[in-house]
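Box 3.1. Reading complex inputs
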Amino acid sequence: MEQFFAYTRLFNFAKSIFLKMGCSDQDADIASKALLSADIRGVDSHGVARLSGYVRLWEVNRVNSKPTIQIIHETPSTGVVDGDAGLGLVVAPFAMEQAINKAKNVGSGWVSVQNSNHFGIAGYHAMLALPHDMIGIAMTNASALVAPTFSKERMLGTNPIAVAIPAGIEPPFVADFATTTAANGKLEILQRKNQPVPEGWVQTQDGSPSNDANELKNGGALLPLGSDREHSSHKGYMLGSIVDIFSGILSGANYGPWVPPFPSFIPMPENMPGKGIGHFFGAMRIDAFRKPEAFKKDMDQWIQRFRKAAPAKGFSSVIVPGDPEREIEKRRMTEGIPILSLVVKDLEALATKFSVDF
Amino acid sequence: MEQFFAYTRLFNFAKSIFLKMGCSDQDADIASKALLSADIRGVDSHGVARLSGYVRLWEVNRVNSKPTIQIIHETPSTGVVDGDAGLGLVVAPFAMEQAINKAKNVGSGWVSVQNSNHFGIAGYHAMLALPHDMIGIAMTNASALVAPTFSKERMLGTNPIAVAIPAGIEPPFVADFATTTAANGKLEILQRKNQPVPEGWVQTQDGSPSNDANELKNGGALLPLGSDREHSSHKGYMLGSIVDIFSGILSGANYGPWVPPFPSFIPMPENMPGKGIGHFFGAMRIDAFRKPEAFKKDMDQWIQRFRKAAPAKGFSSVIVPGDPEREIEKRRMTEGIPILSLVVKDLEALATKFSVDF
């Protein structure tokens, strides 16, 4: 069902495809690094499995492989970036770099992005702040698959939020999560296995509960974090809305049901109010608040205390955000990255199409 | 079971109590306004019902009624405020004002607060940004009642997040929510009615599911938003953790299981690593990103489109965050604020104790 590939092999292949799309060497490098970060961290749905999806967006002229990415409005601590329809994988690191530079100058930097495309995993971009002793924040809107509480209509994307926080001797705290009960990737795993999904993940076209992993294909919707009103799905709906507004409206991108879809074969929404999809990034210098040593000592104590929290009956220990992905990364960098045969076939087809080695 | 009181009457009473505690006239005014904002917006658990709780904290010297609140570290866009053990109801508006001033100067302002106490509802402080055409953000940590995913131990508070976003002809978007499935206030309502709580709100002392509204008194815990692992409670746990770290660790306040409890009779945690409880505030100028008219036009369209989202079977319409509280406020400002007889008795006892009129 799956084959193992070395990181470098997948990286070089992805880079060769981005180069064939017309990306500069530097952009192909940046994009491949962002894309592969999903594969090494275990977010298999967002890595090389999406490479052919990016290619198709370029083929229908929705991705510009030679974008002029620039700041179109700014203050010392804020700015808006126009991605010029570039790959989100390239636009996002550019925007995050602006946020980091602003944080260097005035303590924090906040950048909203218009006219972009899907940027891979949010966590990768948030983590770019860590080597600078900064807290990194990344979020993005995405095409509508999620129904707000009380609705049957798809109005919001899975709109993830990532926050990366440096520690001292402990590894950093890294949270990266969709604002839905279940990410689409988890649904896809159960679809492939032909298994039902737990109640509270999806609803039918008319808004009734469902266990069908294929409900989205029938016009159903994903549910906001919380699942139903009794379990506070309105909070997941609010979180997804905040991500949508910070990413889409602060920047002048599209928002809500108007965010362009990732699959190139789905027609674009009518009467789109903005440009492309939107992201939002933040960087805060630790020493803009406190002595970094004091902060890191407390972060270490926080992490160590939470790891030691008494486990509930039937569980062995509490997990600190970022631990599972880091463990997967360590393993995959030595043992290789498992790729499903379906995805391997897809990559082979890309290799043939562009006459590159795989 | 309940009596109705005019806003002004409750405001004047609260102010007279804060004055008796030794607050300055200005501080008593600020505190009463923040406190009453909960009663008028329908968050009955956080308003005058807590007045005697604040008094008891002052009686045991945990609240300083004459604090010297000051910035102890800052950059152009960030800062840390020491609340000098003052009422959070007074410290928070001071810190939010600093964030707003920084946003006026450099586009955005971010202030973390140490050495504070409970600040009432987060939404009130976030909304202070709205008249300045800014987005306002407020969060706070609180004493540990919530068990992380896989744990039976109380490690986090209900750690609320509030985000207020201005619109044009539409009223502002205001989200204000605890990062748990159920806020403690909702639990208290069912306790008073002697009713069970839905599964997924609380767990027993050993981490098993429970429907008992009194489970917290038995050593049980509230559950993070998402309720269980299958419904992504790790996302609620991550959200609560981010609030804890931004509020407690960026500032040098206490965090996790060391946050001081609100009830004055509960002993303070041992080996507390910081000072008091922590908050975190943000303000972002709209025109630091985009022309305010363009932003507001899009916000109006967002709000109108979400109000019109097709309702699910059995529901009449989708709610835009902030709408319910604003409707309650409108009604209560004309019809009065309903106060439970138990709370009325509590306020009467306060009136007697301090020899003031109620």
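In summary: The domain at 2-181+223-291+334-354 of chain A is CATH 3.30.1370.60 (Ribosomal Protein S8; Chain: A, domain 1).
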